[in-house]
Amino acid sequence: MFHVVDDNEHVRELIVELLDVAGYGGKAFSCPFEYLDYVNSDSYISPVAIITDVRMPRMNGYELIEEVREKFPNQKFVVISGYEGKDGAVRTDPCHFLSKPFNPEQLIAVADAIVRCDM
């Protein structure tokens, strides 16, 4: 299971659908704060990886990574962004960085690689 955090509903739902079709499953969250509420809940189930957008209102993806890693230091992340530059990626060291627009095959290849490493 992958978790997807993106403020763009269409992108978020597309990623979850692609992950579901590939057999991995996905759970969608509309913002970092919604995700952090889930992380801190009793019902939290750790994912294989968290796929997060970079630019979101009030908290960006890199800040989300730092927050989650305080509690789960080994959590894997995939960062997606439509903007040039990976400044925060260097600081937060995600497993993968996908530039928007990406095609479905690229996303599934990244998911495959993460799952293989997890085995």
Automatic annotation (TrEMBL):
Superkingdom classification of source: Bacteria
Biological process terms in GO annotation: phosphorelay signal transduction system
Domain Response regulatory: from-to ranges: 1-115
Modified residues (4-aspartylphosphate): D53
Stored PROSITE patterns: RESPONSE_REGULATORY
Keywords assigned by UniProt, alphabetized: Phosphoprotein
Pfam families: Response_reg (PF00072)
InterPro entries per the UniProt record, alphabetical: Bact_response_regulator (IPR050595), CheY-like_superfamily (IPR011006), Sig_transdc_resp-reg_receiver (IPR001789)
PANTHER family reported in the protein's UniProt record: RESPONSE REGULATORY DOMAIN-CONTAINING PROTEIN, STRESS RESPONSE REGULATOR PROTEIN 1
The name this protein goes by in its record: Two-component system, NtrC family, response regulator PilR/two-component system, response regulator YesN/two-component system, NtrC family, C4-dicarboxylate transport response regulator DctD
Organism encoding this protein: Mariprofundus ferrinatatus
Taxonomic placement: Bacteria, Pseudomonadati, Pseudomonadota, Candidatius Mariprofundia, Mariprofundales
